[in-house]
Amino acid sequence: MPQLNPNPWLSIMITSWLTFILIIQPKVLSFTPTNLPTNKTLTTIKINPWIWPWS
């Protein structure tokens, strides 16, 4: 059963995970977000009922 042979894919998987963890992830995490979340005050909206001309 060739899928049980870890020789071709195990090294590729370990290399890709190490690349992600050691190189790509720190670069992505070092970015600072441009739009920081701020606390917005809730505004109340006054709803005016619609007056239908035929009623």
Automatic annotation (TrEMBL):
Record keyword Transferase present: no
Cellular component GO terms held in the UniProt record: mitochondrial membrane; proton-transporting ATP synthase complex
One Pfam family hit: ATP-synt_8
GO biological process: proton motive force-driven ATP synthesis
Molecular function via GO: proton transmembrane transporter activity
Lineage top rank: taxon: Eukaryota
Major subcellular location class: mitochondrion
Transmembrane segments: 6-24
InterPro entries: ATP8_metazoa, ATPase_protein_8
Keywords: ATP synthesis, CF(0), Hydrogen ion transport, Ion transport, Membrane, Mitochondrion, Transmembrane, Transmembrane helix, Transport
Subcellular locations according to the entry: Mitochondrion membrane
Annotated membrane topology: Single-pass membrane protein
Family: Belongs to the ATPase protein 8 family.
Name the record gives this protein: ATP synthase complex subunit 8
